[in-house]
């Protein structure tokens, strides 16, 4: 599952040494441009995390490229969950791939700050024209473009059981207040409103981030992500308090608080995406349906559907918290440039989009590229986002934002267990953040 990859792909302790080793090797003069179309020739190597069905889908994209560029031979290496280590080792040995696709901005930043990456400025005009501004900016630093998002994830989605909503006579919520009101009605009709995957602490960080971005706004979000404001800031306390409107409604959570703390995301998702639901709503990303991929009897649109994360206090509905796998370049050559350019195009995106499990940030990709209406809905929300922010916990030091049993994961699980302790939670979050960020 894509999200497990993203959570497991954390920077390793020896990474800085590996990147530094490449810096001395990365001063070669770049060619001015790639040759057009089939005139390009040579070898190009690519490394990414994708295995299994995702590997097959990406290979299909690469095959599309080689059909257009028969003179180029592409070699793909799948590093799986060990990408930081495998890629770092390749860098340390002076033999990195020409291109890599990495799932965390922090990983891109580590390479860039040590001079290991080649600029992608030859792609900048096209990316800025075709991608939402906030997504295009993710790869820009120090006046240059060093990466672009190829495969995006929408984590601002609310999945609901169609029959549970119809039986209770409620409509899918467009606002937070409507969600809270609908939850009460669902409970009265006999179905707990919420399936909460509290055993996976990262799902709670996603809920917080969606609330915080809508309630505090993107400027505050960026400040908190960089720890430029403390976790005791009033905006954080307010978002935590809003969060407890769901976490504190124990009688309306499938399995109650204790059950929620023992439930992982696949299990929570299956409670809602079902012909016999035991909960009505699961709030998580576009990857939720993978939990029931082996159950063809449950059908999207018939048994379950999706709407955007509810607006809070008049926030723009076109607001997305998400993730993305970004392309970076270690070796500049006409073949590298040609493949990187191809990966920005709707033609490349369409090949994977038609297979499912893929969202493109490219606004030029027609909606009919996606295999069904639900995939189209979640992907179009990314491509048309007016505000897009990367998952905050993925931007944080691993000790704070990415380790089970500690930091943000553990402290938000503690808030689920004791939702009355908002102020204490904020103080403990700030203490953990200060230690992880170095003060």
UniProtKB/TrEMBL annotation:
Keywords: Signal, Transport. Coiled coil: none annotated. Transmembrane segments: none annotated. Residues 1-23 form the signal peptide. It comes from the Bacteria. Gene3D superfamilies: Periplasmic binding protein-like II (3.40.190.10). InterPro entries: Bact_solute-bd_prot1, SBP. PROSITE patterns: PROKAR_LIPOPROTEIN (PS51257). PANTHER family: ARABINOSE-BINDING PROTEIN-RELATED, OSMOPROTECTIVE COMPOUNDS-BINDING PROTEIN GGTB. Belongs to the bacterial solute-binding protein 1 family. This is Sugar ABC transporter substrate-binding protein. It comes from Phytohabitans flavus.
């Amino acid at each position: 599952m894509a999200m497990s990859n993203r959570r497991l792909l954390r920077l390793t302790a020896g990474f800085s040494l590996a990147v530094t080793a490449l810096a001395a090797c990365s001063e070669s003069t770049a060619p001015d441009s790639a040759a057009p179309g089939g005139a390009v020739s040579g070898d190009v190597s690519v490394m990414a995390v994708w295995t299994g069905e995702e590997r097959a889908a990406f290979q299909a994209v690469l095959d599309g490229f080689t059909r257009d560029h028969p003179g180029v031979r592409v070699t793909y290496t799948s590093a799986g969950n060990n990408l930081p280590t495998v890629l770092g080792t390749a860098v340390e040995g002076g033999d990195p791939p020409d291109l890599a696709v990495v799932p965390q901005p922090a990983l891109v930043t580590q390479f860039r700050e040590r001079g290991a990456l080649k600029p992608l400025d030859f792609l900048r005009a096209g990316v800025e024209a075709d991608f939402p501004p906030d997504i295009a900016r993710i790869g820009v630093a120090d006046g240059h473009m060093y990466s672009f998002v190829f495969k995006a994830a929408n984590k601002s989605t609310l999945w609901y059981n169609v029959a549970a909503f119809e039986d209770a006579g409620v409509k899918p919520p467009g606002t937070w207040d409507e969600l809270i009101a609908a939850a009460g009605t669902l409970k009265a009709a006999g179905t707990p409103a919420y399936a909460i995957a509290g055993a996976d602490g990262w799902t709670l960080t996603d809920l917080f981030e969606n609330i915080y971005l809508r309630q505090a706004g993107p400027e505050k979000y960026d400040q908190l992500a960089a720890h430029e404001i403390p976790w005791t800031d009033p905006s954080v306390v307010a978002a935590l308090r809003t969060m407890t409107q769901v976490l504190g409604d124990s009688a309306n959570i499938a399995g109650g608080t204790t059950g929620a703390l023992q439930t992982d995301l696949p299990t929570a998702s299956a409670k809602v995406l079902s012909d016999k639901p035991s909960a009505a709503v699961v709030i998580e990303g576009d990857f939720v349906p993978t939990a029931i991929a082996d159950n063809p009897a449950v059908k999207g649109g018939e048994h379950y559907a999706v709407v955007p994360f509810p607006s809070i206090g008049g926030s723009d509905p076109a607001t997305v918290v998400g993730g993305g796998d970004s392309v970076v370049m270690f070796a500049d050559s006409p073949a590298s440039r040609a493949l990187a350019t191809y990966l920005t195009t709707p033609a490349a995106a369409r090949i994977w989009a038609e297979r499912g499990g893929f969202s493109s940030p490219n606004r030029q990709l027609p909606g009919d590229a996606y295999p069904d209406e639900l995939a189209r809905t979640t992907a179009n929300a990314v491509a048309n986002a007016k505000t897009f922010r990367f998952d905050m916990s993925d931007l944080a030091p691993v000790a704070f934002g990415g380790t089970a049993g500690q930091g943000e994961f553990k402290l938000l699980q503690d808030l689920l267990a004791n939702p009355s302790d908002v102020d204490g939670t904020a103080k403990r979050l700030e203490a953990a953040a200060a230690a992880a960020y170095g003060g």
